[in-house]
Amino acid sequence: MNFLKKHQDERGYFMEVLRLSCIEPKGFQPAQLSISETRSGVIKAFHYHEKQSDLFCPLTGSFRIVLFDMRSKSSTCGNGYSIYSDVRSPFLLHIPPGVAHGYQVLGDAAGVMLYVMNRIYDPADEGRFEWNDPTVAFPW
What we know:
- By secondary structure, the chain is an all-beta fold.
- The strands form three sheets. A five-stranded antiparallel sheet has the order 1-9-6-11-4, with no helix packed on it. Strands 8-7-10-5-12 form a five-stranded antiparallel sheet, with no helix packed on it. A two-stranded antiparallel ribbon has the order 2-3.
- It contains no helices and twelve strands.
- The chain has strands at 2-3, 6-9, 12-15, 32-38, 43-49, 54-60, 62-69, 80-85, 91-95, 99-106, 111-117, 126-128.
């Protein structure tokens, strides 16, 4: 996770989200940018990719971003994680293939999420399961 630096003054702020020369992990080549607005209280989870990597950048609102490692050769396989974000602590989060992910919008306002993907979206590369799937038992 890369924390993003805001340059604020009385007019607002300026913040770099992505420099192609500094993308971590190295080798990530952006192929598509997308944006999603989600209403307060909504849970969008879970989905995963076999080949695609994502970079998440929460733009507005408060999020609980959730990750569930499905990579059989990973030391964290079967573990779930929550990462909280709001406008005071912006970051860019890398989500590799095989890590199921999603989010819940917290608070009263809608949330806007920027997605940067290293491949053009392909529905055949995506798997899904419900946010409350009992085989995962993610601790919401």
